[in-house]
Design a protein that fits this description.
The chain has 9 helices and no strands. The protein is mainly alpha-helical. The N and C termini lie far apart (86 Å).
Length: 211
Amino acid sequence: MDKEIITKQLRGRPKKNLKETEENHLSLLFAGVSLLTQKGFEATGLDEITKNAGLPKGSFYAYFDSKEIFGLAVIEAYSDFFTKMLDRSYLNEARTPLERIGDFIVEARSNMARHNYNRGCLIGNLGQEINTLPDVFRQRLSDVFCKWQKKTETCLLAAQARGEIPPYINCTIKAELFWIGWEGAVLRAKLERRARPLDIFRLDFETGLKK
């Protein structure tokens, strides 16, 4: 076969299917969220990720240049997912601000139960192994927590304006305490494989807003 025929055949090949590439990219991210939430970053191998995504072994680098870049993309994907869940509750004007925070806890509690408490919070899980992760992860994880904390603070301020909580409550500190306590409760619920730590946290947090 001469050079001219080969050239014509190459030109006649269809371009790579962009839709398929995007779908495979998303499948890897979904697999990453699932596996990293359960096992952590260091304990999850690339072949395991591609297998979970239904892709050929060794195809990871066709979509991501490194595991570090993949990890950052997974953090972003999880942050977007979780932020939407927060907004479903926090922006629901049919409920009072404190009821909205309670609604978030109920939904998150239900999600953990559905997965038999094998999954916790990806951001919190990665935070626990931060000393073994690339340095860039530290700031990114902190940024995500700050975003969620700010949304909670806004909800608490709305509750204060409505008279649901006393005017002397420091909503900034309470929002920070919420996420410190919530992440601890999630870890304990995952450890014990039951909802009791989440329920205790909710009761204590809500009681603290009335003092």
